[in-house]
């Protein structure tokens, strides 16, 4: 199973964006951003906002996970 918070944190660092920048874009406090990084799952509306802010399709990780499992 994926850990979406770690993936978001990795992408933010890959883009060399500071946590304060990300918090401002999300209209939240830095502590909330660190809380997001610890989450194994996330609300889809929030994930959509994060995907738009970082210009990265985080939903694709779930699709890959779905494709790799036998249903």
TrEMBL record:
The lineage of its organism: Bacteria, Pseudomonadati, Bacteroidota, Bacteroidia, Bacteroidales. It comes from the Bacteria. This is Transcriptional regulator.
